[in-house]
Write a structure and sequence with these properties.
The protein has 790 residues and is mainly alpha-helical. Among the domains are: 1-46, no CATH class; 48-183, no CATH class; 598-786, Tetracycline Repressor, domain 2, CATH 1.10.357. It has helices spanning 2-12, 17-48, 53-127, 131-149, 156-184, 222-233, 237-258, 290-309, 338-362, 374-389, 399-405, 407-427, 456-465, 490-506, 511-535, 537-542, 544-569, 587-613, 625-649, 655-679, 685-701, 712-720, 722-725, 729-740, 743-750, 756-760, 763-773, 778-786; strands spanning 185-188, 205-208, 262-269, 273-280, 312-313, 336-337, 434-437, 486-489. Strand 3 (262-269) and strand 4 form a beta hairpin. The radius of gyration is 57 Å and the shape is elongated. The N and C termini lie far apart (149 Å). Keywords: Acetylation, Cell cycle, Cell division, Centromere, Chromosome, Coiled coil, Cytoplasm, Cytoskeleton, Endoplasmic reticulum, ER-Golgi transport, Kinetochore, Membrane, Mitosis, Phosphoprotein, Protein transport, Transport.
């Protein structure tokens, strides 16, 4: 450090080296002398014990002078050294900056040289169609240009010129590569507007040329390898293969998968290469089988693999590129093959098309064909194995193979979908086409296996389900639990058969499949519950015939739901076999649905009936011709309405429901008539006669509306039982008697509150009727006095 300071000071020209050394040497001698004297004094003071106070003070003064000289010299040295050091550092920094600038310029010149050499080699290789070398040299030039851009302050116009040249030459190379690619894989395609049917695809052709070689080869030509490798180096291979894959899917693979009559033909043309074209062969099949699809697809992909895609490409590093060591042989060693790129681009869409256009339609329609589907699964495995060998496919479990292996699930889903569609179609069909249900009517149910014919578990289940024997030997009648004779919609019978056949498909199926099918059957009935009342709402209110049929339909379904679960429970896998298979919870809803539908129709008929009776002018002043005519018309209309309903519901409703319905409506009519008559305050003799005629008409013709059966002779029984179904029938007959009776006859039928008249009317009602019928006389007063409640 001391020598460096001295040199700096010497170079400054302000302090001579010899002068500084002399002063330091002189000062050093003074220090040594002072040190010896101080040591001597100290020795005499502490060792010899000689008093030397004066000598010590003199020495102290001398030491202080020497110290001051040292400080002055030190200050001088520091001032000179710091000033000259700062000057030296500044000059050194300037020299360093100048050196760095020179180094940068040299590096930029070197990169410009590399850029120029690379572009020269690029043009030379491009003329010789050495596309791999061209691509690598272009990448090297791009790397040099990027290096130039990294320095700040570089000439912008020059960089723009280099970038522009680089872009132009890259596009030039890509154009040449694209042109070569088009010559190697030549498409002949139909116009897009003509893709309206199978015949338009017959114009599709793909020619794979030999790439300059004259003899057919079993591997892609060298030129193709160069083109693909060059595209990979320039980052354009993915885009080029993507465009190729889109055309391949649209014009070759998808048509072959979709149309069963389309086939692919591969022909070798002498000196021109290989031609793939589509041919049409008539076939009755609507959808191709999986084996046909796999065969056609493999023919196309194997041909492409052999003549076009069996080429390995690598991402070449620019650092490894040199003009001397780049050759076509470099292409053979790579990271992945072009078939891998194409496979990644087409597999998802192609497998999706195979699933929806082929495998979906190959799913069996019944469970007995499920075992045969193992052939399709094996074919799918072989298909994927072939694709993996050609490196079109990577990975083990694909969506295609998963779909084929999940046949039980897809079978159940397809079956459920078909069943729901068929069920909805039946629900929205016409209801008026009916079939007659009798105790002998039975649904066609597939034969089910015996509960104990399987394994021990089945035998134990069957043993558990055996009912204990009843000690009482008397049994219920054969028809005790049968549905009464009625008519239901033919579509409902078909709907129930559909449910039974669906449940029979669940027998012997896997637990998941059986559960799905079982709940589909439940969904059928829940769909009926929601759809039919809404879809047919207007007709159910407008047409009494349809309302009666809907009532029967609901009761018919409820009747079968009671035992439907028990009928299949022992044949279904767990947990359905353990008691989960039941439909009993749906029974109350269906019964309520049928009852509400029919009651709504009865209310409509009741409202029409009351509206007609309201035109009778309250049955008052019937001695007037117009009033009598209106009343008579209203009565005739009511009877006609009842007869029409009786005919419409004949042989449709069960006999007991028919009689109750007709009895309710007839009871409504006569109740209204009784109420109107009882409200009259004055009934003349002529009015009473007219009222009697009208009421007598109802008594005579009312029972005739009870015709539940087509055979007239069998209806007499129900016509005689009118009082059973019409609550006010006896009351009405007593009223008719009173209208023609005299006071004595009325009193006699009252019989002090114990007669038949007293059973139907109270004393107040009878007194009011007597006052309306008879004038105020002593005889009437006597009669009124006898009308008392017992």
């Amino acid at each position: 450090m001391a020598s460096f300071v001295t040199e700096v000071l010497a170079s400054s020209g302000k302090l001579e080296k010899e002068d500084l050394n002399g002063k330091i040497s002189k000062l050093s001698r003074k220090v040594e002398e002072t040190k010896e004297e101080v040591c001597d004094i100290i020795n005499k003071r502490y060792n010899e014990f000689l008093p030397s106070m004066q000598g010590a003070e003199a020495l102290m003064g001398q030491a202080e002078e020497v110290s001051k000289e040292i400080d002055i010299l030190k200050s001088c040295i520091e001032t000179e050294v710091q000033h000259n050091l700062h000057t030296a550092v500044t000059e050194h920094a300037k020299l360093k900056q100048q050196l760095e600038r020179n180094t940068t310029v040299i590096a930029m010149l070197r990169h410009l040289e590399e850029f120029h050499i690379a572009m020269e080699e690029f043009h030379k290789a491009l003329l010789e169609k050495k596309y791999v070398i061209s691509a690598k040299q272009l990448e090297k030039a791009r790397h040099s240009a990027d290096s130039l851009k990294a320095w700040k302050g570089s000439e912008l116009p020059l960089l723009r010129a280099l970038s522009s040249e680089l872009t132009v030459q890259r596009e030039n190379l890509i154009y040449h590569l694209g042109d070569e690619w088009k010559r190697l894989a030549v498409w002949k395609l139909p116009p897009s507007k003509e893709l309206t049917g199978i015949k338009s695809f017959l114009k599709t052709e793909l020619q794979l040329t030999l790439g300059g070689t004259k003899e057919p080869q079993q591997s892609p030509p060298p030129l193709l390898s160069c083109v693909l490798q060059a595209l990979a180096i320039q980052g354009e291979l993915q885009h080029k293969i993507k465009l190729f894959s889109q055309v391949l899917l649209k014009y070759l693979l998808k048509p072959l998968i979709t149309y069963p009559s389309l086939n692919v033909e591969v022909s070798e043309q002498q000196g021109e290469g290989t031609l793939l074209s589509l041919q049409c062969a008539e076939t009755p099949e609507e959808h191709p089988s999986p084996s046909q699809v796999y065969t056609k697809v493999l023919v196309v992909l194997k041909t492409l693999h052999t003549h076009l895609l069996d080429v390995s490409v690598a991402d070449v590093s620019v650092a490894d590129v040199s003009v001397a060591d780049v050759s076509v042989a470099d292409v053979s060693v790579g990271e992945r093959k072009v078939s891998v790129i194409l496979g990644d681009l087409v597999w998802q869409e192609m497998s999706h098309c195979i699933i929806h256009e082929c495998l979906l339609h190959s799913i069996p329609t019944n469970s007995s064909q499920l075992e045969q589907y193992s052939v399709v699964i094996k074919e799918t495995e072989e298909f994927e194995k072939s694709l993996k060998e050609m490196q079109y496919l990577r990975g083990d479990a694909t969506e295609l193979l998963k779909y084929a292996r999940d046949i039980n699930c897809h079978f159940a889903s397809k079956k459920c979908k078909d069943v729901i569609v068929a069920a909805r179609k039946l629900m929205t069909s016409e209801m008026h086409n009916t079939v007659k249900i009798t105790p002998d009517s039975k649904l066609s149910v597939p034969k089910l296996p015996s509960p104990g014919s399987g394994d021990n578990k089945g035998k134990q289940k069957a043993k558990k389900l055996e009912a204990p024997r009843l000690e009482n030997e008397k049994q219920l009648g054969a028809l005790t639990l049968c549905l009464p004779v009625c008519r239901i919609s033919e579509s409902v019978q078909q709907l129930m058969e559909l449910a039974l056949h669906t449940l029979s498909e669940a027998v012997g199926s896997s637990s998941q499949c059986a559960t799905q099918l079982f709940f589909t059957v439940r969904n059928i009935f829940q769909l009926f519950y929601d759809v039919v009342p809404t879809y047919h709402k207007g007709n159910l209110l407008k047409f009494p015939h349809l309302a009666a049929i809907q009532h029967n339909n609901c009761m018919y379904i409820a009747h079968h739901l009671l035992t439907l679960g028990h009928q299949f429970r022992s044949h279904l896998p767990d947990p359905l076999g353990e008691g989960a298979a039941t439909f009993v919870d749906l029974v109350p809803g269906f019964r309520k649905l049928g009852t509400q539908c029919f009651l709504a129709q009865l209310n409509v008929q009741r409202a029409e009936m009351l509206e007609r009776l309201s035109t009778a002018r309250n049955f008052s002043n019937l001695d007037d011709e117009e009033n009598y005519s209106a009343a008579s018309k209203a009565v005739r209309q009511v009877i006609h309405q009842l007869k029409r309903l009786g005919t419409v519901w004949q042989d449709v409703l069960p006999v007991n429901i028919y009689c109750k319905a007709m009895g309710t409506l007839l009871n409504t009519a006569i109740s209204e008539l009784i109420a109107k008559v009882m409200m009259l305050e004055d009934i003349s003799t002529e009015d009473g006669e007219h009222l009697h005629i009208l009421c007598q008409t109802i008594i005579e013709e009312g029972p005739l509306v009870f015709i539940p059966l087509p055979e007239e002779s069998k209806n007499k029984k129900y016509q005689e039982e009118v009082p059973v179904y019409v609550t006010k029938w006896i009351t009405f007959k007593e009223l008719v008697i009173v209208l023609r009776a005299n006071l004595q006859e009325i009193v006699d039928r009252w019989a002090e509150g114990k007669g038949p008249l007293a059973l139907e009317f109270c004393s107040a009602e009878m007194k009011s009727l007597i006052r309306a019928l008879f004038q105020n006389t002593e005889r009437r007063a006597v009669a009124l006095s006898k009308i008392k409640d017992s």
